[in-house]
Specification:
Helices cover about 65% and strands about 0% of the residues. It is built from eight helices and no strands. About 30% of the residues are buried.
Length: about 200
């Protein structure tokens, strides 16, 4: 059950109160942006997806059931928009060195490590970009954003077992790429999935 304060805020949004919608955006904007960024690996694309996610929420907030978890709905919109964008891309995008700050440890300030961290972040995003969207989504949501498998299941619209299977498969594929093993990656079926 959502907390009472959020329900009240959502009800104000449904009444058309712009101040309430701004507060809702302030509450979730950063997280939505970083989900999109970690899926897309590009600042501009993440900005566009996060803006589109809030536009869709604004247009449909009147139909939202305030008894449900808002963040699940919002993150589902964000993930779906990111997956759509990935599918439309004709080839894997090169990730710019300036667009890789999300995986940086802000407490590490040693300038001699900056090049190594940048290179590692670049490799991570390049390998994430090679994963099929359904695997990239669960790996990003779990290992980068820290969502539980139950939350991810709600966001991506499949069972908890399916999420765990996709996460297992995604980690296995990512590890093979990281270790330089010649792995063939396609959007293969999901043996072991129950959705």
């Amino acid at each position: 059950m959502p907390e009472a304060a959020e329900v009240a805020l959502l009800e104000k949004c449904q009444q058309g109160r712009e101040d309430a919608f701004r507060e809702l955006m302030d509450r979730y904007q950063r997280r939505v942006y970083w989900i999109a960024f970690n899926m897309l690996g590009n600042y501009e694309s993440a900005k566009e997806v996060s803006q589109e996610a809030f536009i869709r929420v604004f247009r449909n907030i009147g139909r939202f059931d305030v008894k449900k978890n808002f963040y699940t709905w919002l993150y589902q919109i964000t993930v779906n928009l990111s997956i759509d964008r990935l599918r439309k891309a004709s080839h894997a995008k090169a990730v710019g060195l300036d667009g890789l700050g999300s995986l940086a440890d802000p407490d590490r300030r040693d300038p001699s490590d900056a090049g190594e961290r940048t290179e590692t972040r670049q490799r991570v995003h390049q390998f994430l970009d090679r994963l099929p969207p359904k695997y990239k989504a669960v790996l990003t949501l779990r290992d980068i954003q820290g969502f539980s498998c139950e939350e991810i299941a709600e966001i991506v619209g499949c069972t908890n077992a399916t999420v765990r299977w996709r996460l297992h498969r995604a980690r296995k594929l990512f590890k093979a790429l990281w270790e330089g093993k010649g792995v063939e990656i396609g959007d293969e079926g999901d043996e072991g999935e129950s959705s």
